[in-house]
Here is the input.
Amino acid sequence: MTDKAHPWSVPVTVAQIPDTGLHRDIETDQAAREAMAEIADLREILSASASLDVMPKGGGGFHVTGRVRARVGQTCVVTLDPIENDIDEEIDLIFAPPDQIPGLSDLVDDAAESDEEIPDPPEPIINGVIDLGRLATDALFLAIDPYPRKPDAVFEPLVVADDPDDHPFAALKALQVDAKPQGPKKPDKH
Here is the structure.
């Protein structure tokens, strides 16, 4: 059964990962691509696949590296024409048991206070499982261009002739005309 929020699911039980690591090539099916396109507000996802390596680290942690590749159908923000974009995104994440995450996050915070490069905090291993499909989906979604445009599309702003009465000081000029003195006031002779 596919979870609507996470349609591409490829769970790997960490207890079954050998000491030498694990390699997985995964690919989406049509139903998962359609659901993912709807979640990401894309016209379509034509293909999505990932090639991932899961290597054990000390203390029950795992290092996941690899790539996610996809072809997505979008709409050009300039011309509104349909376009297709290729995604090729690197994945490099550390997973750790949930009880270790607070301590590892403190190490990340400590590194932030120094001049060292700041590592990403680890992701939690949930119920003894790393979901490679969900990981690949997240990487794919983050790599989508939010403002896709055709290579030759150029935005040309609408050119409107300036109205001489429409400038920053037009309102002040109007006030000045209303406030002009009408000459010296003559005293009333009643």
